[in-house]
Amino acid sequence: MNTYLEALRPKLSELDYEKLCAITNFKVHEFIAKASDLCNPERIFICSDSAEDIAYVRRQAIATGEEKAILTLPGHTVHFDGVYDQGRDRQATKYLVPKGVSLSKALNQIDRQEGLAEVKGLLRDLMTGRTMITRFLSLGPSNSIFSIHGLQCTDSWYVAHSEDLLYRHGYEVFRQSGPDMEFLRVLHSAGKLNENKTSIEHEKKRIYIDHMDNTIYSVNTQYAGNSVGFKKLAFRLAIRKANSEGWLAEHMMLMGVHGTTSRKTYFAGAFPSACGKTNFAMLVPPEGFKGWTVTTVGDDIAWIKPGKDGRFYAINPEAGYFGVAPGTSYSTNANAMDTLKANVIFTNVALTPEGDVWWEGMTKTPPAKLIDWQGKEWSPGCGRPAAHPNARFTVPASQCPSIDPDWENPAGVPISAFVFGGRMSKDMPLVYQAFNWAHGVYLAATMGSEATAAAIGQAAMRRDPMAMLPFCGYNMADYFTHWLNVGRKVANPPRIFRVNWFRKDENGKFMWPGFGENMRVLKWIVDRVHGRGFAIESPVGWMPRFEDLEWKGLDFPAERFYELMAVGRDAGTAEAHSHEELFDRFLDRLPKEFTFERELLRSRLWRSPARWELAHEE
Ligand code: GTP
Ligand code: SPV
Ligand code: MN
Description:
Layout: H1 3-8, H2 14-21, H3 26-39, E1 43-47, H4 51-63, E2 68-69, E3 77-79, E4 93-97, E5 109-111, H5 112-123, E6 131-139, E7 148-154, H6 157-166, E8 168-169, H7 171-176, E9 184-189, E10 206-210, E11 215-219, H8 224-227, H9 232-245, E12 248-250, E13 253-258, E14 264-270, H10 277-281, E15 293-298, E16 302-306, E17 312-315, E18 320-324, H11 334-339, E19 345-347, E20 350-351, E21 357-358, E22 370-371, E23 377-378, E24 392-396, E25 413-421, E26 431-433, H12 437-445, E27 448-450, E28 461-463, H13 476-489, E29 495-499, H14 518-529, E30 536-537, E31 542-543, H15 558-565, E32 567-568, H16 569-584, H17 592-606, E33 611-612, H18 614-617
Parallel strand pairs: 1-6, 3-19, 4-5, 4-10, 7-9, 9-11, 14-25, 25-29
Antiparallel strand pairs: 2-3, 6-7, 6-8, 10-11, 12-16, 13-14, 13-15, 16-17, 17-25, 18-24, 19-24, 20-21, 22-23, 26-29, 27-28, 30-31, 32-33
Helix pairs in contact: 4-6, 12-13, 16-17
The chain binds guanosine-5'-triphosphate, sulfopyruvate and manganese (II) ion.
The site of manganese (II) ion has 3 residues, from loops.
């Protein structure tokens, strides 16, 4: 007799009891029983992959008030998070480590016993009177060597519904695989809610990662980045697993580009949160690119493994997008807008009097009256944004018109280049290519970016190596070494590029039109990858001349392009100097190559004129 199953029985319907019995993995029963013991829900709902169960979760999200149906858009709902719950919370997110162990000085960590006692204390009896929903999910396509499975227990129908849109169903995998299948575990409670069904005890928000037990605890939060365990929390566990097994789990979008003559070329790109991954992955080629197609594989996370043919292969472990709404419009990202036609949860957006959604940048002129993301009346010019800057949409990837035909290929897609880009309003050129793998890893590791709304309380300019600083659950220096090593192991590692769509002129205006026009940069990258594109050696890397980019359909003066590409010697030297500050934090284990690369950068800058411009080279 399985005592866990028997203990759970009184809280399960007959049908749900059967669903749970059909899974023979004893660890599943154990996790759910312990979660139930701790949180004390009134009942437990076992969500299978059936359409009926999935529809029930969505209906409950609306019935409980966690989501509201949008009357003008059938199939759409909206959910609001609390004022203090509008992004990933770095303060509240901690790694549990045993006594005397440190994963890294730079990480937020807490003694494992102490942390477990604290978070379990907060979770105790928190689901009283509520239903605990259990969701079985698969990260990655079915039958893929990449895929990892997960189980989340939550008292939030909104979270359970979001997971349905973002991940592949996994109940059948759990049912069919025997008693030994490994899986990730997440226990979440939204905690005390107000009358709007918003978590209120934000001082008691905790997100604890127990890598020793592959378990995540999340409490008193609803923001999906903190509560949907398989988004950025399981990602942290995957990063550690990748490190120990010789592959890469990255904060990257994945896209394919098909030109008029070339084969399809796949790219992986890391841009820090709210710096353009979703938009780049869904890029709509502008006029002048007839015959070119861009396809989307993923917009946030990529798992990358060396293949037998000397190339890297990547999959998207997710099956949906949790994308930034502000700035998304038919002119910036038509693919995203068309993806949003059905089955969407909007979060923290503004509502029109008709009950439709709106966010900054969605239309040129805002509606005359809105209810803002905090439920207050809003009119243009009132001085507040109507939607929160980190307002988002949650939507299945399969609805994206540009979805790549191979996005679910269990073997992944072959990667030809890595593109890294932050949000830099000064000094950082539009595009350049690394001289070699080690230099490329250095460029990626020193990536800087200006603060965005995706995380709470960021410094104005921060270094965000590979866009991974918020997520990497071990020493960053070891992570850099891991990157250098995986590149050494494959015969043909991807080429590495740095891009920056966000340089501003003296009036504070973006100098580069961005979005679809990024295709011009992308085409040069495709050309370089296939050994066709021309480049000049600059102090920072290989750069295209004006005539190396395709300009058909865009009136962009050469002088302006050269301004965008200029490298200031003093600014470059200051930049190189501040790399030192970054590396000091990880000094104990910093790869030697990084010291050499910094020295080489300084010497190239020392030899360059005060303002290095491509035009001078001609
Ligand atoms: P996360 O989901 O947080 O990881 O973000 P992301 O990297 O996917 O960023 P996303 O594509 O959602 O873009 C974030 C913000 O940057 C949005 O407001 C976009 O409109 C804006 N953005 C994206 N690409 C460009 C661009 O090429 N130029 C300009 N000016 N803005 C851009
Ligand atoms: C990010 O912040 O990078 C996101 C959103 O993609 S979250 O799910 O909060 O991580
Ligand atoms: Mn992200």
